[in-house]
Design goal:
Elements: E1 5-11, E2 14-21, H1 27-38, H2 41-51, E3 55-56, H3 59-68, H4 78-87, H5 99-104, E4 110-111, E5 128-133, E6 138-143, E7 145-150, H6 157-163
Parallel strand pairs: 1-5, 3-4
Antiparallel strand pairs: 1-2, 5-6, 6-7
Length: 170
């Protein structure tokens, strides 16, 4: 489902990742996927280690990547979009929270950081946000409201989902 969001990683006082995603950014979608990934200590350690070497794409590099798949004026056919996603997974809206695993396994070393200010107007179309904050040692999930947990004491899947459960009357 087209539920847009952003996956953030903060380390060293800066946003190292700001991955926009087009799909499933509700808690039981991308939220659970990210929680499952960071709940594995080896995954979290690999992400922490590899994030050091991640660099942002310059705007000209993004433009060159888009042009490399034969795009005209930024528009792509489905075939071009598939090729683009395989060549540049950190630049496609389809990657979403999977960016964490792609960084941790070394597949992705360059990202496009979406530094949205996220005003109240932005929150209309950025519905879910998930942040791995190595500086603060917390995992932050935002879906209507913000919740956070220490990285060394993450919730179970049931606890995570219960934190965002709404009364039937809502």
């Amino acid at each position: 489902m087209g539920t847009r969001g952003i996956t953030w990683v903060i380390q060293g006082g800066e946003r190292k990742v700001g991955q926009y995603g087009q799909w499933d950014h509700y808690p039981e979608g991308q939220g659970l996927d990210i929680l499952r990934f960071i709940s594995v200590p080896e995954n979290l350690a690999a992400l922490r280690e590899k994030i050091e070497g991640v660099t942002p794409y310059a705007e000209a590099e993004v433009d060159a990547a888009i042009a490399a798949v034969g795009s005209e004026n930024g528009w792509m056919t489905m075939e071009q979009s598939d090729k683009f996603g395989k060549l540049y997974p950190s630049l496609t809206r389809d990657t979403g929270g999977k960016i964490l695993g792609l960084i941790a396994d070394g597949t992705v070393t360059q990202v496009q950081i979406h530094n949205y200010p996220l005003t109240d107007e932005d929150r209309i179309w950025i519905e879910g946000q998930y942040t791995v904050d190595f500086d603060g040692g917390v995992f932050i999930a935002e879906w209507g409201e913000m919740k956070s947990w220490p990285l060394d004491n993450l919730p179970t899947e049931d606890e995570f989902l219960a934190a965002f459960a709404r009364d039937e009357e809502d």
